[in-house]
Design brief:
This protein is α+β, with helices and mostly antiparallel strands. Helices cover 35% and strands 21% of the residues. It has 24 helices and 24 strands. The strands form 7 sheets. It has a 5-stranded mixed sheet. A 5-stranded antiparallel sheet has the order 14-13-12-15-16. The protein has a 4-stranded antiparallel sheet with strand order 5-4-7-8. Helix 1 packs antiparallel against helix 2 and helix 16 runs antiparallel to helix 17. The longest helix is centred in the first third of the chain and has 23 residues. The radius of gyration is 29 Å and the shape is globular. The two termini are 51 Å apart. The relative contact order is 0.06.
């Protein structure tokens, strides 16, 4: 009887997987939804009574798992970089010229694909089975959403290939979406249940993926199109086209509008075609992605810090709406620069209510002849701050008024200084004690990418500065629960939580600390580059402009600004005071002296096969800590190959090339020489 039940479970698992593929990928179902649901219900009942017959790739895993308390995080094997943008044909032609010049060849072919407006994810398969799914996150580290992703019917839990042919590791990247029709149905259901509706399909997809209870995710109509890979072991592709064909064979949905092998002229032609039927698609897109098709050429072109050189996103014209400029106000930023802001009649642009738009500076207002009470065309693109594209002169009634920048700071009443920066005039409050600047500096200092102090939001910061409780960065660490509890909107529990959050924030990386200081021209990326070159804050404070300019990616403006900031006696005093409150600045860069002489330092290492002692990801982490570089393919430059169980072609290639091979026991002993 037990054998029969096991046989029935395996049969149902296999048939349901095949039907799911026909439905989601081939769009050619051969059974009704009712029949599918009945088969799934039968399998659920069998696996509940006989859990030993379940498996990680069983279709029942799409129903959902028990709720999580929070999401864990995982580092991407290869960073999920963002793309540079093109906004017209000239930008694309310039992109093509750069590639032609870099490769010294004219015959470049591209693969183009719709730029889906969804949520980027990475799916990790080991020996053909889905083991982990993560969000893009910050490009380096993402949130683990495996249980939620397993509920999406179009994502294979197991690759459609023989186990012997399945790659040892396959990281697949794609965009999770909700179609327009499914989005409308979802919102209608939420309205009927008196729930808040989603603003747009992308927000609905993102919210659905971040549910701690995957059973909720299972009720959402999520779908996916895959477009590329991360780290791959046991499989090679020569082109984007071949990669996508293989992914489709494995059971992944690949967008039917992808066009491979196009010259740059045909790329531009297809962009216009794609734009013409954009609104007819079942899902939302906001442009087209252009990629060099040949993967060997992609590798030659390489990447910049934030984006690959071999790909670009050609964006469609952003969504625009007409509205009225009710007023123009001025905001004072943390550097003292005054920015005019248009106060608008609220208007819905792409599912978001927009009531403000940046006007950047006085020069732009004059150039576009923007006046208060003008009718204006306002544009919003993605998460970019809305802006006024142009005013509609034909709508003027004669009661519109000109705007002039103030001669005094609207906050501290100090005299405004007008200077020219490149081709633009800027107005700046040079009063270092200006409360508006102080508020913005503190907000930046405690923000998520800096000290990340929960509970210290914008309104609380405003109140603390107004009350005189914060007059510089170091005052953040002097806040006391008793005084905080007396503030408006701050109960005793909130005050206690805030003080605790401040205590937790006192251990901070050098990179985040440098970013927190808000130095001119020294943003998040500059802070990262600098922190990778110095061991301590003291070294950074004592360095020269020339040394900083010698760091790849650091320009002269940034180098000058950093040195100027740290040469200021007031800034050095504030940093000294911060240190006196117990703030600990850590830094993993450069490599600790204790590892400099380790055998694996500066060695190129390939991991292959299954390790019994630890997951390969942990082995990779430990090796990188020792200064090793982990590569995915074996070449003559490889120093060691670590071979676990079922090591395949990489082991054979290493033997052929005469590269030193370490078995697991030997590897562990060398990894930790103090362990006998």
């Amino acid at each position: 009887m037990s054998k029969e039940i096991k046989k029935e479970a395996k049969k149902l698992q296999k048939e349901l997987t095949a039907h799911s593929y026909r439905y989601h990928v081939l769009d050619d179902p051969v059974i009704s939804d009712l029949e599918y649901d009945y088969m799934l219900k039968t399998l659920v009942e069998i696996e509940e009574e006989f859990p030993e017959y379940s498996s990680p790739d069983s279709p029942t895993k799409r129903v959902g798992a028990p709720p999580l308390s929070s999401f864990s995080q995982a580092v991407h094997s290869i960073p999920m970089l963002s793309l540079d943008n093109a906004f017209d044909d000239k930008d694309v032609l310039d992109f093509h010229k750069r590639i032609v010049k870099k490769l010294n060849r004219e015959d470049i072919l591209y693969t183009v694909e719709p730029k889906l407006d969804g949520v980027a994810v990475e799916l990790k398969y080991e020996n053909g089975v889905l083991v982990q799914a993560t969000t893009r996150g910050d490009g380096v580290t993402g949130e683990v959403i495996t249980d939620n992703v397993r509920t999406i019917g179009s994502i294979p839990l197991k690759l459609l290939t023989d186990e012997q042919k399945a790659p040892a590791l396959l990281e697949v990247r794609g965009e999770i979406i909700i179609t327009r029709s499914d989005f409308n149905r979802l919102n209608n259901t939420r309205l009927e249940n008196d729930e808040t509706v989603f603003a747009n399909p992308r927000n609905a997809a993102a919210g659905s993926l971040r549910q701690l209870d995957s059973k909720v995710t299972a009720t959402r109509p999520l779908d996916i199109f895959v477009y590329g890979t991360g780290l791959v072991q046991g499989l090679e592709f020569s082109s984007q086209e071949q990669m996508l064909d293989l992914l489709k064979e494995f059971g992944f949905p690949v967008n039917s509008h992808i066009q491979p092998g196009l010259g740059v002229d045909k790329v531009l032609t297809f962009y216009k075609e794609l734009e013409s039927f954009r609104e007819e698609l079942a899902y939302e897109i906001d442009g087209m992605v252009i990629k060099v098709d040949d993967i060997s050429l992609q590798k030659q072109l390489g990447e910049k810090i934030k984006s690959p050189r071999w790909a670009i996103a050609y964006k469609f014209p952003a969504m625009q709406k007409t509205t009225t400029i009710k007023d123009i106000i001025v905001q004072v930023g943390r550097t003292g620069v005054l920015t005019p802001v248009a106060i608008l009649e609220s208007v819905n642009i792409g599912g978001v209510m927009v009531s403000r738009a940046t006007l950047h500076n006085e020069d732009l207002i004059k150039k576009k002849d923007i006046r208060i009470k003008d009718k204006a065309l306002v544009m919003r693109a993605g998460d970019v701050i809305p802006k006024v594209v142009k005013i509609i002169e034909s709508e003027r009634k004669g009661n519109e008024t000109l705007f002039a920048m103030p001669v005094q700071c609207p906050v501290c009443q100090s005299q405004i200084v007008k200077t020219k920066l490149k081709d633009t005039h800027i107005h700046k409050c040079v009063n270092a004690s200006c409360q508006a600047q102080l508020k913005e500096k503190i907000k930046h200092f405690v923000s998520k990418k800096a000290f990340n102090i929960e509970g210290l939001g914008k309104k609380i910061v405003d109140q603390l500065v107004d009350e005189g409780m914060i007059q510089s960065f170091c005052d953040v660490f002097r806040l006391e629960m008793e005084k905080l509890a007396d503030l408006d909107r701050m109960a005793e529990k909130s005050a206690t939580n805030l003080v605790e959050s401040i205590k937790k924030s006192k251990k901070i990386s050098l990179r985040r600390f440098l970013f927190a200081l808000g130095i001119d021209h020294a943003g998040e990326n500059a802070a990262k580059l600098i922190s990778e070159q110095f061991s301590t804050l003291e070294e950074v404070m004592g360095t020269s402009e020339e040394t900083l300019k010698g760091i790849k990616g650091i320009g002269s403006e940034t180098a000058t600004a950093v040195c100027k900031f740290f040469s200021n006696i007031e800034n050095r005093t504030i940093i000294k005071n911060i240190d006196s409150y117990g703030v600990l600045i850590t830094n993993k860069q450069p490599l600790s002296n204790e590892f400099l002489d380790h055998l694996f330092n500066k060695k190129r290492i390939v991991l292959t096969g299954t390790l019994e002692t630890m997951p390969r990801s942990e082995a990779k982490r430990q090796l990188e800590k020792l200064g090793a570089s982990i590569t995915s393919s074996v070449s003559s430059k490889t120093d060691f190959v670590v071979a676990g169980e079922k090591a395949g072609s990489k082991l054979t290639k290493a033997q052929t090339l005469g590269i030193e091979i370490l078995e697991e026991k030997q590897f562990i002993k060398l990894l930790n020489p103090d362990i006998s």
